[in-house]
Amino acid sequence: MNDSLPSSRLEMLRFLERVQVADLERTRRWIAEEERRAAERQRGEQARPPVPDWVIERGIGRDGPPVAVHLGGCHMAKKRWKGVPRDVARRALA
Length: 94
Hints:
DUF6233; three-stranded antiparallel beta sheet
């Protein structure tokens, strides 16, 4: 007969227990990693600067002229924008 097979039900149950313990430890590591990521995301959101009330979008070039005024957080503002106070935004519109 094959001697490598478990010889008793008890041995099979002990083997099953070891497999399940290993699975549980792996699952706990996954949970800990996901908790770490969630905490990191939360810290990042808390550290993010506040959205400005208004933004001025500039044209191409180092000191490009203003081409648009947007509310802060507007998804239409392109890459070249700067947050400004309300009075600066109003002057840019004029």
